[in-house]
Amino acid sequence: MDKMYFGGVEGGATHSNLVICNEFGKVVGKAQGPGTNHWVLGIDECAKRIIDMLHAAKEDAGIPLDQPIDSLGLTLSGCEQESSNADLAVCVREKDAACAGAIYVASDTAGSLFTGAPNGGMVLIAGTGSNGLLRTPDGQQYGCGGWGYLLGDEGGAYWIAHRAVKAIFDDEDGLLSSPHPTERVWEVISEHFKAETRADLLPYAYKHFDKSHFAGLTAKLSSLAAAGDALSRHVLALAGAALAGHAAALAERAPPASSLRVVCVGSVWNSWDALRPGFLKQLAARRVKIELELVRLKVSSAMGAAWLAAKHVNYRLPRDDSAFCEVFYTYRPDVNGKVNGTHNGKLDNGLEGCGCNDWSYWS
Q: Which of 152, 164, 251, 309 is deepest in the core (most CB within 10 A)?
């Protein structure tokens, strides 16, 4: 068999990864780059960034730049619309006619799903934004969310950061009292934005708005939550409830089964301890009756994009599923309506310290 190469791109709003696999599924080249959401950048800049990463990965793999790889899969944030996906594929090829023999474009959820659950399941992305996708074993797909920071992104990093900043403004104004002391949250907000007063935040929200920078506040809120700050934990519990709302909506569309795998992708999931109370309470409130197996990816979802690229040209790329993901929580609803699960092998109900009955409360 002649050598074959398949490329895959995991493209988020903030950063992107590209891998090239050979015909045996082994990664032979890698590259990293900035965000690749064409709604934010424009299709031309998005295509340029993809080609830059592809060239870097080809050089890493020892593949001549004028040698097309067999197929390139682009699973990118914002690629929900077939017409704009087709425009992006055309633009990529215009920038480098030798990029690939075939180009497949889909949303970032597709790459994550086919990395962790190629035979069907759910993916919940919680990075800068949020998105959910269910794919049934027979190939039907249903989405929930993914509408961007103005119309959605509930539970994503920008949403969390915005909630925390809004809590400070509303509490100071007397518009809506914070359920917990605000001092420590204000300290990290002040440090992140180099702000001494609330008015100093206005340029970051309007004239100099940068969604990725704004969302970067969430990493600091996560550290604050891990240290026990009540307001940070409350905001993250609300985010957990919002993400569980996506899961509940999609679970209703799932075919009858004993369990459903949920691939959890994005930096927000690193705060699972703080997300968990709201997540489980919302599942109980929505009466989700199917067992949910929450897994983390051990590899970039660019691997799923490469798998889709191969599938697009009718080649089944070998894979080792056990090396791709690991279970970190199993939700098990019981007949009495209680929420049970296993976390690190221990039974728990995960509801301690959660004051949120509805993720939209205190918004």
A: 309
Q: Which two tokens stand for residue 92?
A: 């990529």
Q: Is the pLDDT of residue 285 over 70?
A: yes
Q: 204's torsion region: left (phi>0), alpha (psi -120 to 50) or beta?
A: alpha
First CA to last CA distance, the chain? 59
Provide CB contacts within 8 A for 189, sequence distance 6+: 164, 165, 168, 195, 201, 217
Q: pTM to 2 decimals?
A: 0.79
The pLDDT mean for the chain works out to: 90
User: Which tokens hold the place of 4?
Assistant: 């074959």
Residue type at 201 in one-letter notation: L
Chain centre distance of CA 76? 11
Query: Ramachandran region of residue 274, left (φ > 0), alpha (ψ -120 to 50) or beta?
Result: alpha
8-32: burial string, b at 16+ Cβ within 10 Å, e else: bbbbbbbebbbbbbbbebebbbbbe
- 99 Cα distance to chain centroid: 27
Closest CA to 167 of 226, 219, 274, 239: 239
pLDDT band for position 111 (cuts 50, 70, 90): confident
Q: How confident is the model at residue 151 (pLDDT cuts 50, 70, 90)?
A: very high
* Ramachandran class of 353: left when φ > 0, alpha when ψ lies in -120 to 50, beta otherwise: left
Asked if 151 and 204 count as a contact pair (C-beta separation under 8 A), the reply is no
Helix (H, G, I), strand (E, B) or coil at 283: helix
**pLDDT-derived band of residue 78, with 50, 70 and 90 as boundaries?**
confident
